[in-house]
Description:
InterPro entries: ET-Flavoprotein_bsu_CS, ETF_a/b_N, ETF_b, ETF_beta_N, Rossmann-like_a/b/a_fold, Sigma_54_int. The chain is an alpha/beta fold. The chain has one domain: HUPs (Rossmann fold, 3-Layer(aba) Sandwich), CATH 3.40.50.620. It has six helices and eleven strands.
Amino acid sequence: MKVLVPVKRVVDYNVKVRVAADGSGVETQGVKMSMNPFDEIAVEEAVRLREKGAAKEVVAVTIGAQAAQDVLRMAMAMGADRAILVRTDDTLEPRAVANVLKAIATREEAGLICMGKQAIDDDMNATGQILAAKLGWPQGTFASAVTVADGRVEVAREIDGGTEVVSLTLPAVITADLRLNEPRYASLPNIMKARKKPLETIEIDSLGIDTASRLTVVSVAEPSERKEGVKVNSAAELVEKLKTEAKVI
Ligand code: AMP
């Protein structure tokens, strides 16, 4: 079975995100970029499946600019066998990303797509679900445990109030939650080895698919500043403050 792992290049999670001067989005110029953390978890899970013998090959794919090659190299340093860059300078919304991933999954005859539950730049949490619907494949979202056996994949899902276990027929789409695993550290020798692994570039236009935006960003703004809070020592003091200071009761 071939596992396809979509990975996105995003502003590094340690960087304080700032709104671009023209209000069109988030500032990315001169900002450290990295693989989306949930996608690192997805790569780790796919590599573990191959190591256990449940998968034969792990293919990382990203849709983005030439610079996004760095996250593909990182995925290969973590253990992915090869990578595909679908090159575009446009920022695509989840529906368009799902259209592209569907085309790649079909071309690659993927048996499983293992991806992040959300990208930390736009927090959409939508691409996996749209992709599963477009492919007509079952989906196991918010995965905290994954087991592949007998042509099925069992996924423990994090839901409000606990864990739900679903059993999916393959091929399927899984989206990784935080507790699924702890991604391995890419060692220097593996980073060097990853430089020699195959990385294919496909121009997005050559796929001939619909990537038009249906969404328009009206404006992007910093959240308004919040007043500093105070700590109270007792419930009685809280009630007093709500009455006399906040005047809400
Ligand atoms: P989102 O729905 O935008 O929160 O993203 C969910 C997941 O979709 C991410 O964790 C990635 O696995 C995948 N994804 C989103 N955008 C891209 C992209 N441009 N290239 C590759 N994978 C992506």
